[in-house]
């Protein structure tokens, strides 16, 4: 007796679900966040290029911005191309800024000879600098007087 009741409930639930999906699709008036249908290409207004002049830091302890393109850099579990120039062993030969010593400390504060795993993915904190408009309005005022 239990199986016919459960089968009836399951059939009713399936029917209602399919009807709901059909109504939702026919309702119309829904718009995507990007303002175009999923199969329409979206044309970008402008691609902002890397700025050659170094930007100032806007607040204390802000990670430095990257003054060059890193678009083709490999940064994954096996390789980090940034270290080819910025590791303490290479920076002098390449005339590149060295990493802060904090990048060579493990979680417990012990010094290491290689970059700590917690600092391996440079683009977690550092981003290429570009003179692009703000994505949202804000009232941020830099803490550094210019």
TrEMBL record:
Keywords recorded for this protein, A-Z: Electron transport, Heme, Iron, Metal-binding, Periplasm, Signal, Transport
Presence of the UniProt keyword Glycoprotein in the record: no
GO function terms (MF aspect): metal ion binding
Binding site for heme c 1: 68, 82, 85-86
Pfam families per UniProt: NapB
PTM notes: Binds 2 heme C groups per subunit.
Localization annotation: Periplasm
Record-listed heme c 2 binding positions: 103, 122, 125-126
One cellular component (GO) term of this entry: periplasmic space
GO BP, sorted A to Z: anaerobic respiration
Keyword Electron transport attached: yes
Predominant location category: periplasm
InterPro entries the record matches: Multihaem_cyt_sf, NapB
Purpose of the protein: Electron transfer subunit of the periplasmic nitrate reductase complex NapAB. Receives electrons from the membrane-anchored tetraheme c-type NapC protein and transfers these to NapA subunit, thus allowing electron flow between membrane and periplasm. Essential for periplasmic nitrate reduction with nitrate as the terminal electron acceptor.
Quaternary structure note: Component of the periplasmic nitrate reductase NapAB complex composed of NapA and NapB.
Family per record: Belongs to the NapB family.
Protein name (database record): Periplasmic nitrate reductase, electron transfer subunit
Organism: Aliiruegeria lutimaris
